[in-house]
Amino acid sequence: MKITPACTLFLSGCVAGTQSALNADGPAASELKSLIFLFVAVCGVVFVLVMSVMAWALVRRKNQAPGEPQTERSMGRVVTGAIVMTFLVVSFLTITSFYATNGVDRGRDNLPTITVRGQQWWWQFTYLDADPARTFQTANELHIPVGTDVRLRLEATDVIHSFWVPNLTGKQDLVPGRDNRLTLHASKAGIYRGQCAEFCGLQHSHMALLVIAEEPADYARWLESQRKTAAAPADSDAAAGKLVFMSKPCAACHTIRGTGASGTSGPDLTHVGSRSMIAAGLLENTRGSVAAWIADPQTLKPGNNMPLVPLTGEELRQLSAYMSGLR
Known about the structure:
Radius of gyration: 27 Å
Subcellular location: Membrane
Strand order of the largest sheet: 3-2-1-5-8
CATH architecture of the largest domain: Sandwich
Membrane topology: Multi-pass membrane protein
EC number: 7.1.1.9
Number of strands: 14
Order of helices and strands: HHHEEEEEEEEEEHHHEEEEHHH
Pfam families: COX2, Cytochrom_C
Oligomer: single chain
Signal peptide: 1-23
CATH topology of the largest domain: Immunoglobulin-like
Number of domains: 2
């Protein structure tokens, strides 16, 4: 069978990539992948059967002698059989789907827990610990250890969002006032892209996240580094940028642990320089991107909650140096 280049282009997105339900790297994703194939197979069989019955009916009618009455009894049996088969197929797929999606949350209570909070239009991750002093927050990048179940507590502060990392698990909604749960498990190290899967406003399509699955030893080192307070400015530009940050409204909206800045309406920026992207996947995390975002966030992501802060060119250069150095 010849496949046109256009078909190849469309099909390539179904089987590979960092955001594909058919490239499963976790138990829940594997179950959902099997469910997809089961649905395709059952629907394919149903399609073939329906087409076969239609072909049989057309041939039968063509070969029917003129004036010969149609056999209503045989047609009645066909219709009755179709109704029964439809009920059985739909029931089978419903039950199978229920048990497959039920594995999205494995129900264990003693798992490492991360609170995921969806906001317009970014993700806040709170790594919980029995010792409150060891609890910390990050934004838009979720780190987990390979081979370990991690419990996600899903919350929303404004509208309904939906957490979806196709390679690792199915979708689960974040509903204001409701505590939903999800178990995340990565079978191998890698970077997996996720996306808000429930329309949540103007910048819904720019509400992405990365799940970074690391070997347990690497993950433990990352945890310890994230629990530390902000790094001291490395040069005079960064030191001046810190003063700019503390003197502007930035400190009222963002937290940088160890500086006195403790705002909660924006992402925690204590280690923002260590992240690979900013603005929930909109921009690569470079000093130039940071400067562009600070200078005019509404042009880059219209409708987001970050206001335009008046800065001189020198202040912008210094502040971007400080932000990039927070690793």
